[in-house]
């Protein structure tokens, strides 16, 4: 079976959990013998034909246009393309390209009767006609993916998150092949509230027009049914996992004090303001602690100013954006990990923190609480409870060590193979309909 995989992020081009999740899923699918044609946001019309597990790391690329392939000559690697600046990542600016002209070109080249009859496709066209830079990028990616994929042979389309849903919808109409959309996070999660209406509409169209919807947790599946009126009969849950690295995970302290970590986007969804209030209250009663905030986001300046008003010296450190190796370094140093997300579809970073021996305190409003045992599960708003847990762990080092040991052992169980098998079952289900 060959799957056309549409994703906004894939290592080495990623900014968060989506890229790492797609990497883990694709690599595990390849181990199962499923072939993948991967399309990510690129400046040139190239795709990545992945046929064996190691291809997920080397990313061999191909030009669907025979003329360009011949002009390039030989085998081109993603490293070479990156050095040439051809691969541009998620938010490349499209310049003067006009979506209406692009759509008309597609319409003229592929005069499908479905385009003229489908009100859903007309709605999609209107939704992507805005001037916001992100919608411009989605338009560009949709056109890129459409141009590449119509020259490929595949059995199933798999679109990850709303940014690639438009491409998946158009390609389903064009090819007649079944579509699975993967919901890694809804706009309700990201915005911590209503969010952007246009994104909601695109998510709704993707959910409505897909043959199957893959949710990363039961929490997300329930949200799809309640907020988007999704047909429960076509939702399938495939919990996230994480990839064990071969690197040594022995603890390596950065400070002599107990280190408490927040790692994620500094946005309302992730609850950094709750973490900061926890830090303030803990520091009032316990000085043998150090807090680290890893990540960036629109609340960063606000958090910096607030922490400066009460945190003495370097008791609260803001690490900013962290490269992958820096993430691993900071996880190795953490004793306690806190994820106070207001709404979290899953929370892969919790598994990573556990694998490094950090004791995790996680929001009950997250998908990961469905599958893990050796974590503290607390409502994101229950600051008193989080403070109480931290103070108890600091005062009882033997308990901290014991929960840490159990966390490491449990984290080893969550690998991508089980997730990939569930996704492969979805592919088979819709292919044989």
From TrEMBL:
Domain of life: Bacteria
One Pfam family from the record: Glyco_transf_4
Domain Glycosyltransferase subfamily 4-like N-terminal: 125-241
UniProt xrefs under PROSITE patterns: PROKAR_LIPOPROTEIN (PS51257)
GO molecular function list: glycosyltransferase activity
Keywords: Transferase
Ranges for domain Glycosyl transferase family: 249-405
Keyword Transferase among UniProt keywords: yes
Keyword match Hydrolase: no
UniProt-listed PANTHER family: SULFOQUINOVOSYL TRANSFERASE SQD2 (PTHR45947)
Name of this protein: Glycosyltransferase family 1 protein
């Amino acid at each position: 079976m060959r799957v056309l995989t549409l994703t906004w992020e894939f290592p080495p081009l990623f900014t968060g959990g989506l890229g790492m999740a797609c990497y883990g899923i694709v690599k595990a699918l390849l181990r199962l013998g499923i072939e993948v044609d991967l399309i990510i946001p690129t400046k040139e019309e190239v795709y990545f034909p992945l046929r064996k597990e190691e291809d997920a790391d080397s990313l061999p690329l191909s030009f669907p246009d025979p003329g360009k392939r011949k002009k390039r000559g030989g085998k081109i690697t993603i490293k070479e393309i990156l050095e040439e600046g051809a691969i541009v990542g998620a938010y490349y600016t499209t310049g003067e390209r006009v979506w209406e002209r692009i759509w008309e070109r597609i319409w003229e080249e592929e005069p499908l009767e479905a385009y003229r009859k489908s009100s859903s496709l007309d709605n999609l066209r209107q939704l992507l006609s805005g001037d916001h830079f992100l919608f411009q990028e989605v338009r560009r990616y949709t056109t890129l993916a459409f141009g590449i994929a119509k020259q490929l042979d595949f059995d199933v389309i798999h679109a990850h998150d709303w940014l690639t849903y438009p491409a998946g919808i158009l390609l389903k109409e064009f090819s007649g092949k079944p579509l699975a959309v993967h919901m890694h996070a809804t706009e309700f999660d990201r915005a911590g509230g209503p969010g952007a209406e246009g994104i909601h509409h695109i998510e709704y169209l993707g959910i409505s027009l897909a043959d199957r919807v893959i949710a990363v947790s039961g929490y997300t599946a329930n949200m799809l049914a309640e907020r988007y009126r999704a047909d429960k009969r076509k939702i399938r849950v495939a919990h996230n996992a994480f990839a064990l690295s071969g690197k040594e995970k022995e603890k390596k302290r950065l400070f002599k004090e107990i280190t408490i970590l927040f790692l994620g986007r500094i946005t309302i969804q992730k609850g950094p303001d709750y973490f900061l209030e926890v830090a303030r209250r803990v520091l009032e009663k316990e000085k043998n602690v150090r807090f680290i905030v890893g990540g960036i986001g629109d609340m960063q300046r606000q958090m910096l100013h607030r922490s400066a008003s009460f945190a003495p010296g370097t008791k609260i450190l803001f690490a900013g954006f962290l490269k992958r190796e820096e993430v691993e370094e900071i996880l190795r140093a953490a004793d306690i990990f806190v994820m106070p997300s207001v709404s979290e579809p899953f929370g892969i970073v919790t598994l990573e923190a556990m694998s490094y021996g950090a004791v995790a305190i996680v929001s009950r409003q997250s998908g990961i609480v469905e599958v893990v045992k050796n974590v503290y599960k607390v409502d994101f708003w229950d600051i008193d409870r989080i403070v109480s847990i931290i103070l108890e762990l600091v005062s009882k080092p033997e308990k901290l060590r014991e929960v840490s040991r159990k966390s490491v052992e449990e984290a080893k169980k969550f690998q991508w193979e089980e997730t990939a098998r569930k996704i492969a079952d979805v592919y088979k289900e819709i292919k044989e309909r």
